[in-house]
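Researcher: Here's a chain I'd like modeled. Treat it as a single chain, no partners, no ligands.
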Amino acid sequence: MEQPNFTENLQELMQRVGFTSFKSLSRAAGVSHWQILQLRRGKIGQMRLEVLVKLAEVLQISWPELVETFSFGSSFSSLNKTQPFNQHIDLLKQITDLQVEYERITLSMGQQREVLKQEFQRSSLQILESLLLQWPTAAHRAREDHQLAAVKILPLVDKPLQILLETWDVQAIASVGAEIPYNPQFHQLLEGTAQPGEIVKVRYTGYMQYDQLLYRARVSPI
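Model: Modeled as a single isolated chain. Structure tokens:
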């Protein structure tokens, strides 16, 4: 029996999205050359759903379309028209099984995301515990006693914020009031002009995280 060959099917899909070689497709999808060969040989029923989803994504089609294209064939392939009916039934069962597995994986990933989200929220709330518990009382006292010095309640905000930033590895670019050389990569002028290297004054601090810029410090010329 002649071995199925879906190479033309794959090449047509690749051309639609600009892939010129199986190697580039393999690299973009993050799958092995062997998986690409399995697809070309019509052995899609032996491939993991994870691989099919990756290939479908880079080929810009849904994974059920991918399964159909490399199982029954499509409008640009007549190979499977001669396949016995019972083989079509087997392929339908494979598609159904894949659909069930896909839904299971999707549900599992959604549940994992929710668990991670809740864990993140709880850990953040633990860091901010003192602020959450004491700030409403301090704010109430400030509204009742207009003579209450703000410096007395600043630690309630400052300390939890510093702990949170340290926990997330967030560093301030410069402290407010600091006079530093102007660097347009990390600083944003609030007014006027300044040349790189000229001394400017920090009005609002900026932040970095893991060597990535989050917010540029806002500065003013001196």
